[in-house]
Design goal:
Blueprint lengths: L5 E5 L4 E7 L5 E8 L3 H6 L5 E5 L4 H10 L3 E5 L1 H4 L9 H11 L13 H32 L11 H11 L7 H33 L2 H6 L7 H10 L9 H7 L4 E3 L8 E4 L5 H17 L11 H11 L1 H22 L9
Parallel strand pairs: 1-4, 4-5
Antiparallel strand pairs: 1-2, 2-3, 6-7
Amino acid sequence: MQDIKTVGIDLAKNVFYIHGVNERGKTVLKKKLKRAQILPFFANLKPCLIGMESGAGAHYWAREFIKQGHDARIMAAQFVKPYVKNDKTDANDAEAICEAVLRPNMRFVGVKAIAQQDIQSVHRIRQRLVGARRALACEIRGLLGEYGLVIPTGIRKIPKELPGILADDDNQLTSFTRILLQDLLTELSFLTEKINKYNKYISLICKNDEIAQKLTTIPGVGELAATAIIASVSDPKLFKNGREFAAYLGLVPKQRSSGGKMTYLGISKRGDKYIRTLLIHGARVLVAYADKPDIRRVDRSDWINKVKDRRGYCKAAVALANKTARIAWAVMDKNEVYKPTAA
């Protein structure tokens, strides 16, 4: 085992398959290990290149292997799949990972620090709570609609309008239905309190992080987007330029080109959907206010209005989100605040 130079490991909960090759690419190791055997096994190996797919626990194992002196690299599963030979088995997956990690043009995922995973956990929990509150609001509206009662659009309208509906004795709601709706209203208030709690967590994280503070100087980037970006990007040097970062977020056109004919479709929508959504929502606000003559705080308003007149509101918002992503990469790469005049 002393001549092992590259190892591919197929991660799992309890049973792990590893595949090792020497410096000439010859297979010298095929092994199945239990979870408790992983770290002792690699501790006895000389420093080598270890490849693994991005998934549950990948960042944890990468950090542990790096502590042992190995070079651990994480790859997206879609980039490993073309190297799988024959049927899909754990052993074949480990061999494919070992082959893929050696490709000179392979794209790797930055290993996240524990602090980054903490921030990401806050965002994921908040995202779930927001989805649950949205579903609950739709359920309340649907139930009221069955009784001919309508609440104005907006999540904040329900806590304002529903108590008056429950107190109105002239509508067709029975006493039992009023009890049910009161329970839903209490649940809605509870979810709102939880979301506000996580908003405070995110605000505190943003205030204590230098890079996040600099990202918030970009128009259209708030505390949510800034903290989500620093949680996702471990090192801006992983991207050659801002366009690669925008492509990582799925904000560049999808191509169907062949025979020298370039065909561009809508955006690719690859990568991190959450950050892409936040950037587009921030861009929508800027596009909405760009044509207001009495509001000049919107940067690049002339460019925004030209794109909106030529391509429409939604495409202008996506184009602005693309530009925002490129600026965000530059801010992280240069470690400077956003300068509108320089832009």
